[in-house]
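Supplementary Note 3. Input sequence used for the single-chain structure prediction.
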Amino acid sequence: MSAPEPTITAGEYIIHHLTQWTSGPRAGVVDFHIVDIDSLIMTVLLGALACFVLWRVARSMTSGVPGRLQAAVEFLVEFVDEQARGIVRNAKSREFVTPLAFISFIWIVLMNMMDLLPVDLLPRLWEGAAAATGHDPQHAYLRVVATADLSVALGMSITVLLLSLYYGVRVKGLGGWLHELFTAPFGNHPLLWPLNFGMQLLEYLAKTLSHGMRLFGNLYAEEILFMIIALMGAAGLGSLSGWALFFGNIAAGLAWSIFSMLIIVLQGFIFMMLTLVYIGQAHDHH
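The predicted structure, written as discrete structure tokens, is reproduced below.
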């Protein structure tokens, strides 16, 4: 794992790595006029890669003994389909929801796996490209873990919310969905309508925020820890007595990379399962 330049402080190093390549300066914490260009590029590239690999597997499928990749894809398809059957009872809805859950799992895992690359690898290459084209490399920002970007994580969870609302209206009808919105969970007495409506809004908000924040928080913390490990190696190279710290950096980086593989898959699985659960709940009548 590469070490940062000795001319900058640890805080500056971390801040530089956590700064997004954006379409312009932000006016605040939430600014819908700004696009995180690096996250957009990584999500599109990895989504295209996932679709291309799955397309190649589908084209080369055989009825005999499958290869390792085909066997892995078949296992994942069967696993997701089994989970969807147990959660989303409507067979017509599963025709769309099951592939959605499957590709979301693959997509999130691929985005999470970018955290296993050396911390400085792609950002340094991007800085070199900026310098070669006459731009200031100190202001050439690139974050490669798109799921550590809150806008990406919440964007996906809001998409799941919109799908839940769509299927709720589609299955129950607009009148039935509105009736449930004002009469569940406490009953259909008119005095309870405001309380029921408030509880329903709070439930939708809590599910959406927790869905996205869980993915973002875990990957953001993982990204920070990799940066700290990189700084640990840099401190070790600064003195002869620090070589033990440098080798500790290697051991810590290896151990955390192995543990991160579990986090990478687990977070994709949790997001996929919650997608099925929330859309499945939209089909239930209260």
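Helices lie at 10-18, 37-59, 68-87, 91-113, 121-132, 150-183, 193-237, 243-283. DSSP finds eight helices and no strands in the chain.
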